[in-house]
Every structure is written in C-alpha cells, then in structure tokens.
Design brief:
heterodimer, A: mainly alpha, Cytochrome Bc1 Complex, Chain D, domain 2, 61% helix, globular, B: mainly alpha
Chain lengths: 110, 111
C-alpha cells in the first residue's frame, strides 16, 4: 500500500514538473525580450511604427503560435522571419509568458 | 529671361508633384463609425474574452481593441494574400475591400 502511494506521488510529481517545463517562464522571457523591445517598445505597448503590433496583454498561446509560424515560414514577414530563427521552443514560450503578463492598451472589443 | 522663367515654372511644377505625392495617403483612410458596422464577422470570435480557435490549432484569438491600425490592415492583407495562414481568417479577409480593412482597423484601434 505504501509503495503504491509512493509510486502515485512520484507520478504526480513528474506530471507536475512536466507541466511546468511545458509552460513559459516570464522572468526568463524578460531576459530574452530586449531585442523585441527595440521595435515593440520595452513595455510591449509602444511600438515604434504604426505597422508594428502591441504585444502587452495578448494571450500567451497566440504569441507563441505567431513566433512558431514566423520561424516555420507559415507566417511571412521580412523582419520577424529571420528574428524567429534564433528562438528555441522554450524561448518562444518564455517570451510569450512575459509579454502576455504585461498590461497595456490591448483589450477585447466587441 | 524666358529660359529663367521656364526653369522656374518647371521647378514649381516639380515641387508640387513632389508635395502631392507626399500628401497622398499611403492607405485608404479608415472610418471608425463605418468600421463598427462591419464587425459582424469579427465579433463572434474576437469579441469574446478568452475565445479559442478550434481549427486547425487551438489557441486564444488575439485582442484587437487598442491594436495599431496599420498593423490590423497589414494582418488582414496578409491573410488575404496567403502570407498568414488561417482558414477562417483567410476567407473573411478575402471578402473585405481595402476600405473595409481600413474602417475595421480604425474602429478596433480607437479608444
């Protein structure tokens, strides 16, 4: 019975650790976000050009997908394409976690 | 004298062409009020907080309120041209004129 509990707790811990690894780390994302800030604004809310998007507050899974698609070429952009080549899957998750947690002007508008 | 006048009028003509090119809007001007009446196809997904796409991938749709107008227009053009891939967005963007895009962008980017 004890062995069963230990096994179950171990399994639970592994699943929990797996989930943590799968998610993004906003603090690590902040460290990797300097280059993003040069165009999107250090706060993710003040892009230097009207054609560049605000990122602050956008859902993390959307931001991650955008970066993934830039890297794969599914989404074509002469600036973001090359930049995304340097990002690992974990970098994308971390950056997405960071920018999604910043607050700015973005909101759901009907 | 005649030659000097010709040069001067040529310069003036050249300058006015240059200025009119500068003054011409790069994109269609958006009308936020008109855009508000064109959101029927957008609101079903983008108007619902936390709404998730169901196909082909699952993720929460981006917030449009407060986004830069120029970015929204470019996004719609990219979907229409196939530079961004999403079946629903491609179909919707394909049905929009440049004026529709500008109007929607003016609406969503506005306060």
């Amino acid at each position: 019975m004890n062995k069963l509990w230990i096994a179950m707790i171990g399994l639970f811990a592994m699943v929990a650790a797996g989930n943590a690894l799968a998610g993004g780390d906003a603090a690590k994302g902040k460290e990797k976000a300097a280059i993003c800030g040069t165009c999107h604004g250090p706060d993710g809310n003040t892009p230097i050009m009207p054609e560049y998007p605000r990122l602050a507050g956008q859902p993390d899974d959307y931001l991650e997908k955008a970066l993934r698609d830039y890297k794969s070429g599914k989404r074509k952009n002469p600036l973001m394409g090359p930049l995304a080549q340097n990002l690992s899957k974990q970098d994308m998750k971390d950056l997405a976690a960071y920018f999604s947690r910043l607050s700015g002007d973005l909101k759901v508008k009907y | 004298m005649v030659q000097a006048l010709n040069i001067r009028s040529f310069t003036i003509a050249g300058l006015s062409v240059f200025l009119s090119v500068l003054a011409a809007p790069l994109h269609a001007e958006g009308d936020a009020a008109a855009g508000k009446n064109k959101t029927a196809m957008c609101a079903g997904c983008h108007g619902i907080a936390g709404f998730r796409t169901a196909y082909p991938e699952t993720y929460r749709v981006p917030k449009l309120g407060g986004q830069n107008a120029g970015y929204i227009v470019n996004a719609l053009k990219a979907y229409k041209a196939g530079d961004r891939q999403h079946p629903t967005m491609k179909a919707i963007a394909a049905s929009l004129t440049e004026q529709d895009m500008a109007d929607l962008a003016a609406y969503y980017s506005g306060k």
